[in-house]
Specification:
This protein is mainly α. The chain is built from nine helices and no strands. It has helices at 3-8, 16-36, 42-49, 53-59, 63-84, 90-118, 123-145, 155-167, 173-187. Helix 2 (16-36) crosses helix 5 (63-84), helix 6 (90-118) packs across helix 8 and helix 6 packs across helix 9 (173-187).
Length: 191
């Protein structure tokens, strides 16, 4: 369990079966929310995870707690993906990570919107923002040091543009890829 999850969990070790149930619930919630939206019933989440509703509520006493756990899990996956690209050439790492970021933005926007509405000052949101920024800044910084990304580029600017591509209405995957290509081309140093 990562630092972000530890911050939203009670600070005590979980038994192995409890950890498995927690992980199944987070994965099931992501799938159910992706299929049915973030207002999907918690019973549907428990059913998809193969556990009872009582088990869900023991881990996540509120919908907000479940949303935060799903969001934190997805942010952690993006941060791990950045680390996994450390052995790639700097430009390839940036390009690959932002391709993944488009998908992340597309599926996580509803989660974040609902969390912001319920708790705009959430510690989980702040921690996730820091985790994601750290991962993105490391990738951008490495690419800038290698001379393959403009020195005036900041992660937050690129993340906002790429995030908007991910949630752009009425766009198919081909158009999203084309728009991302334009953004990535804009990151390259000018002659």
């Amino acid at each position: 369990m990562s630092e972000t999850h530890a911050q939203i969990q009670i600070q005590r070790p979980m038994r192995a079966d409890a950890r498995r149930n927690y992980e199944k619930l987070v994965a099931a919630a992501l799938a159910v929310f992706a299929d049915q939206g973030t207002s999907a019933s918690l019973e549907a989440v428990a059913e998809r995870a193969g556990v009872g509703i009582g088990t869900l509520y023991r881990h996540f006493p509120t919908r907000q707690a479940l949303l935060e756990a799903v969001y934190a899990d997805e942010v952690e996956a993006m941060a791990r993906a950045a680390g996994d690209l450390a052995d790639c050439a700097p430009w390839d790492a940036v390009a690959e990570w932002f391709h993944q970021y488009v998908g992340f933005a597309a599926t996580k926007r509803a989660l974040m919107d609902m969390m912001l509405e319920a708790a705009p000052d959430s510690d989980v949101l702040a921690t996730c923002r820091t985790t994601l920024s750290r991962a993105g800044n490391e990738l951008i910084g490495r690419a800038q040091a290698a001379g393959v990304v403009r020195p005036d580029v900041e992660f937050i600017d690129v993340a906002r543009m790429v995030g908007q591509i991910g949630v752009a209405p009425n766009t198919d995957q081909e158009q999203k890829e084309r728009m991302l290509g334009i953004v990535l081309d804009g990151l390259r140093p000018r002659p």
